[in-house]
Amino acid sequence: MNLSDEIKVRIEGHVKIFEYDDESGIGTDTGTVKLDKRNAVHNENASIVIARGLANRENGSIYRMDYGTGGATIDPLGNITYATPNTVGAADLNSPVYFEVVDDNEDAPEGNQMSIRHIAGTLFTDVEVRCVINKNEPFGQQAFDNVDGINFNSNQFIFSEIGLKTEDLLLITHIVFSPLEKAANRIFEFVYTLRIRTDC
């Protein structure tokens, strides 16, 4: 086989989470940064999705962003133990609790969208997935009523893992982190970037 016939494909993931007071900040990437971290990729599932996309078959794209509470645990002394990202076999989040559709070709909520960026002459292309969890979301959150902005009861959505999935629930990426708290009066915007790089 001629070496020029071989292409190595790598996918690198990165997640940023921004917090905003109101909707005017969405899409500006100017909010308070709550997380800025690389993620793990499920290589087998990613290869399936790439093949489906090239063959124009169903479930050949990212469809939803999932959130869970099983990414890390904190003991009574405050020590944090992180779970290992799930990137092998029939993987899922450790403890999924919520998801939103991010495929804007489908019924994605306002603010949720995907885009592609490429610079001519380079060997990489970025897929940017954005997801907005608005005030009082996830549904069921009560009004946030603490004056100083500190609250540790059920008025907050707490999560410690995120994953991207296809519509048939193949887990493509998984990231774990120290538990984050989203108050009901705040907006979180998730910017999840996947860089697809080819090396000859």
User: How many strand elements?
Assistant: 11
Helix content range of the residues, please? under 10%
Write down the overall mean pLDDT: 89
End-to-end Cα distance? 13 Å
Biggest sheet statistics: 9 strands, antiparallel
Order of helices and strands: EEHEEEEEEEEE
Explained architecture:
- The chain has 200 residues and is mainly β.
- It has one domain.
- The chain contains one helix and eleven strands.
- It has a nine-stranded antiparallel β-sheet. The chain has a two-stranded antiparallel ribbon with strand order 4-5.
- Strand 7 and strand 8 (124-133) form a beta hairpin.
- The longest helix has 12 residues, at 43-54.
- The two termini are 13 Å apart.
